[in-house]
Amino acid sequence: MKIEYPFEKGGPKRLKIQWKGTFQDITVELDGEQIGTFDNREHFLGGQEFTLTDGSMLSVRLPNSGFSLPVVEKDGQRLSPCGHDPEKILQAVYKFLFMIAAANITIGILTIVNYKAFSDMPSAGWWCLPIGILFGVLGYFVKQRSKTALAIATGFFALNFILTMIFAVDLPKPYYFVMIVLRVGILFVLLMGFGAIKGLRQEAGGGGGRRF
């Protein structure tokens, strides 16, 4: 797996981090040249700093938390992966949360009125209604740049993902595979939201949204 970072918004993707499995054999490349390696996740957690040719400092590390992406900072400024605008990343995050909310609320209401189309879905039930409301509320606060709300939403989504994988294991394999791929993609977007919120706060000089 790999992830790439530009040094400036809209610029070329100069930095590339690659790894195998659960963060094994990590390599860090700048402009196509390898500048550092990490043997495993434990080594990556310690991080490493590099002095670039222009005198700037580049920091690369893995946060000590689950489902985290590498954190890259240049002279203390956190870089957004893949060159995306942090505002657009945040928009994608809270829109996904609103979509999750709408889907759960719809399924919850329909199962309450005994709509048979959802009777064979292992994750469908009346409980989808409060779950949908929760994601809707969290999406609102994520839109206000709340890292706490994003952390709760990400953790809850990850837990729901794991439980769904367990209880839906008997579903037809193509449907099961597509469901996993979609949820992994959503989880990846949610994780990118943390860097987006930090980047937007830095652009606003520490303000520009809720601090919790």
Architecture blueprint of SSEs:
Elements: E1 2-6, E2 13-20, E3 24-30, E4 33-38, H1 41-46, E5 48-51, E6 57-61, E7 71-74, E8 77-78, H2 86-112, H3 128-143, H4 147-167, H5 173-203
Antiparallel strand pairs: 1-2, 2-3, 3-4, 5-6, 6-7, 7-8
Would you kindly provide a written description of the structure presented here, covering whatever features stand out?
The mean pLDDT is 83. Helix content is 48%, strand content 19%. With 212 residues, the chain is α+β, with helices and mostly antiparallel strands. The longest helix is centred in the last third of the chain and has 31 residues, at 173-203. The chain has a four-stranded antiparallel beta sheet with strand order 1-2-3-4. It has helices at residues 41-46, 86-112, 128-143, 147-167, 173-203; strands at 2-6, 13-20, 24-30, 33-38, 48-51, 57-61, 71-74, 77-78. The chain starts with a strand and ends in a 9-residue tail after the last helix. The chain has five helices and eight strands. The chain folds into two domains: 2-83, Lipocalin, CATH 2.40.128; 86-203, no CATH class.
Q: How would you describe this structure in keywords?
A:
212 residues; alpha+beta; Lipocalin; 2 domains; four-stranded antiparallel sheet; 5 helices
Brief digest:
The chain has 212 residues and is of the alpha+beta class. It has 5 helices and 8 strands, in the order E-E-E-E-H-E-E-E-E-H-H-H-H. A hairpin with a 2-residue loop joins strand 3 and strand 4.
